[in-house]
Design goal:
The chain has 3 helices and 8 strands; from the N terminus they run H-E-E-E-E-E-H-E-E-H-E. With 162 residues, the protein is an alpha+beta fold. It has one domain: L,D-transpeptidase catalytic domain-like, CATH 2.40.440.10.
């Protein structure tokens, strides 16, 4: 009987811990190459990241290799991408579309948080400490990307700061 109570208690604590690990906001600091997962104002996890090849400034058009800045949503996920897991960021928003239209250019899209390229996951040192994406936010550790995948639900807001 005592064993059943202990096991039941562990199950309850375990399921509570998993639901408590979900975050309600992702915050990126481009200049510091840091991404934080937050619950309220509490930083739950923090990760080193890489950005687009031209990381300074807000993404203005397709192919500029810049990572956008502003407020977006994690709106869907792709478990079968060319990179180890990927979470889609809702870029471009209406303001991005209008700014691109005014310049006569396409705003681009397909901005993701993702792990390493599938064929290079065994060589993370090749990517650390340098910007290498076309505008995405890369987590150069596939185990960390798996943790992010589990903790960040679709619909989670993301703020990308300069």
């Amino acid at each position: 009987m005592k064993l059943k109570i202990v096991l039941l208690s562990l199950l309850i604590v375990s399921s509570y811990a998993r639901s408590a690990d979900l975050v309600d906001k992702v915050v990126v600091f481009k200049s510091e190459r840091i991404m934080q997962l937050r619950s309220g104002e509490h930083v739950v996890r923090e990760y080193a990241i890489s950005l687009g090849d031209r990381p300074v400034g807000h993404k203005e058009k397709e192919g500029d290799e810049k990572t956008p800045e502003g407020d977006y949503i994690i709106d869907y996920r792709n478990p079968n991408s060319s990179y180890h897991l990927s979470l889609h960021i809702s870029y471009p928003n209406e303001m991005d579309k209008q700014a691109a239209k005014a310049k006569g250019v396409s705003p681009g899209g397909m901005i993701m948080i993702h792990g390493l390229p599938n064929k290079f996951g065994w060589l993370p040192g090749l990517f650390e400490g340098r910007d290498w994406t076309d505008g995405c936010i890369a987590v150069n550790d596939n185990e960390a990307m798996e943790e992010i995948w589990e903790m960040v639900a679709n619909g989670t807001p993301i703020t990308i700061n300069p």
